[in-house]
Design a protein that fits this description.
- It contains eleven helices and 30 strands.
- The strands form nine sheets. An eight-stranded parallel beta sheet has the order 7-6-5-4-3-2-1-8. It has a six-stranded antiparallel beta sheet with strand order 9-10-11-16-13-14.
- Helix 2 runs parallel beside helix 4 (about 85-95), helix 6 (about 150-165) runs parallel beside helix 7 (about 190-200) and helix 9 (about 260-270) runs parallel beside helix 11 (about 295-300).
- The chain folds into three domains: about 10-255, Aldolase class I (TIM Barrel), CATH 3.20.20.70; about 310-395, Immunoglobulin-like (Sandwich); about 400-515, Trefoil (Trefoil (Acidic Fibroblast Growth Factor, subunit A)), CATH 2.80.10.
- The longest helix has 18 residues, at about 150-165.
- The chain starts with 19 loop residues before the first strand and ends with a strand.
- With about 525 residues, the protein is α/β, with parallel strands linked by helices.
- The chain binds alpha-D-galactopyranose.
- Alpha-D-galactopyranose (GLA) binds near residues 25, 61 and 109.
- It is found in: Secreted.
- Its EC number is 3.2.1.22.
């Protein structure tokens, strides 16, 4: 009998909530050695990070020799790791951590060390024998071959690794960097394709560009915003067992203000993203440790639903994101991207809540509680992020998935006017849409008119519950009209559904049923 191979989303218990821990890359790059990791483990076990859940110590690139051994196996650099990786693994495990490593699917790692191509079985066994339970598999130096596109080549290599890892007695957590090699905003078709298969092969995927390294030129905040933005494009793929990875937390980056570091943490937690810190842990300040160990936000990150917060609205400065939590409450996360203080009144109906109910709102940063009805008022410093948890009284517990419907390639928002069109997102109610369980779609600016296909184009018609007003949302990002089978299309309203076409891929509010 063929052994059924299950991992990630088919077997969420491999990694039921996103990973938390340490990785050296963004802070130290290739400047890594045994002492860095023992000092990091010692500091994390005494400063509260381990107790807060950061239990993974992961090595990144440059840990190995430039040559494989005679028998083909990988070897660690004995100058950097004089007592060896099995010893280091035992050391971190004796403190309560688990041990992770980095390799590459191609000929060479990004740093020029031996890649795993052709050595997959051997390397997997080597890692397991060293006590490693987590593999970040990068995708530098992968090339197309005859008869296969580059995308197909990645799929076959990551598929090979998936098969090997999932046949092991103790499957390693599999972090896949493949999508990062396809995140080309000029054309996302291959990127969407790769994002479609990574959840079947592994537990997390680096979907886009690297977060700025410590010594890198440029703005660390801009880098955080870039990765944040990419993450908002791929919410539909995440579910328990598979997590979108917007890359490391960089709390000791010298270019960041305290509000900016706290924002990165709050946003990543709202996404249920991996929380992998890349910093010099022994030198983190008390304030840094305090926000990194914030219990209420870590509980959000580790919430069993693993629902990624999605955009309820976006204007020129402020993003409002929302999601559900396993206890039935609703999270609202408000980010001020702008360069001044921002004041906003956020209507509860854009969060999918009823405007006629009284909710208890906890400010997760300071724990203060207040009753809210109809709206929440928020004041934010530049680049700060607020997070509220709204408890829903029983009679008001129904949440209608509500928020922006936006093209994930152009970033433009579906906008209700006399018909529908795509415009720059401005936070207006005509750009906030509710999606009912039967697939009807209407804007908050006029809840009596539903998105319809009429005369071969997308229009708004009085809601009548008919199939021409029903839409299904695919894992492909397509919004497909049930009656006509046509897909919503930026530019032409609706059109024949094509394969992962930029103009037909949309981000929808979380909680909408996803098919495929
Ligand atoms: C790539 C990855 C980084 C890091 C480096 C190591 O750039 O995206 O996270 O692993 O390689 O060389």
């Amino acid at each position: 009998m063929v052994q059924e191979i299950l991992a990630s989303i088919q077997n969420p218990h491999i990694l039921p909530t996103p990973p938390m821990g340490f990785n050296n890359w963004a802070r130290f790059m290739c400047d890594l050695n045994e002492t860095l990791f023992t000092d990091t483990a010692d500091a994390m076990s005494s400063n509260g990070l381990l107790a807060a859940g950061y239990k993974r110590i992961n090595l990144d690139d440059c840990w190995m020799n430039y040559q494989r051994e005679e028998n083909g196996s990988l070897a660690w650099n004995t100058t950097k790791f004089p007592r060896g990786l099995p010893w280091l693994g035992e050391y971190v495990k004796s403190k309560g951590f688990t041990f992770g490593i980095y390799e590459d699917a191609g000929n060479l790692t990004c740093g020029g060390y031996p890649g795993s191509l052709g050595y997959e079985e051997m390397d997997a066994k080597t890692f397991a024998s060293w006590g490693i339970d987590y593999l970040k598999l990068d995708g530098c130096n992968v090339f197309p071959e005859h008869g296969r596109t580059l995308q197909e080549k990645y799929q076959s290599l990551y598929g090979t690794w998936h098969d090997i890892l999932s046949r092991m007695d103790h499957p390693l957590i599999f972090s896949e960097s493949a999508p990062a090699y396809f995140a080309d905003p000029k054309n996302f078709t291959d990127w969407y394709t790769v994002m479609g298969w990574v959840p079947h092969f592994g537990e997390l995927a680096r979907h886009s560009v690297d977060i700025l390294v410590y010594s890198g030129a440029g703005s660390a905040w801009d880098s955080i915003m870039t990765n944040y933005q990419f993450n908002t494009l791929v919410a539909r793929y995440q579910r328990p067992g598979y997590y979108n990875d917007p890359d490391f937390l960089i709390p000791d980056h010298p270019g960041l203000s305290m509000d900016e570091k706290r924002s990165q943490f709050a946003l990543w937690a709202s996404f249920s993203a991996p929380l992998i810190i890349s910093a010099h842990i022994p030198d983190l300040s008390g304030d840094d440790i305090s926000f990194l160990t914030h219990r209420a936000l870590i509980e959000v990150d580790q919430d069993p639903l693993a629902q990624q917060a999605t955009l309820a609205s976006r204007d020129g400065e402020v993003d409002v994101l929302t999601r559900s939590l396993a206890d039935g409450s609703r999270l609202v996360t408000v980010l001020n991207r702008g360069s001044g203080t921002a004041d906003r009144r956020i209507s509860l109906d854009i969060l999918g809540l009823s405007s006629g109910c009284v909710y208890s709102a906890v400010d997760l940063w300071d724990g203060s509680t207040r009753s809210v009805e109809g709206y929440v008022d928020v004041r934010l410093n530049t680049h700060a992020t607020a997070v509220y948890k709204l408890s829903v009284p029983g009679e008001c517990s129904t949440v209608v998935p509500t928020g922006m419907i936006f093209n994930t390639a152009s970033g433009k928002c579906l906008t209700a006017s006399t018909g529908v069109e795509f415009r720059t997102c401005g936070g207006e109610r005509r750009q906030v849409w509710s999606v009912t369980p039967s697939g009807a779609v209407y804007a908050l600016s006029d809840t009596s008119r539903c998105l319809s296909v009429h005369g071969g184009s997308a229009t708004l018609q009085p809601c009548d519950g008919g199939v021409r007003q029903m839409w299904s949302y695919g894992i492909t990002g397509n919004l497909k009209n049930v009656e006509s089978g046509l897909c919503l299309t930026e530019g032409s309203g609706v059109g024949d559904c094509a394969y992962e076409l930029n103009s037909q891929v949309f981000g929808l509010p979380g909680g909408v049923l996803i098919v495929g």
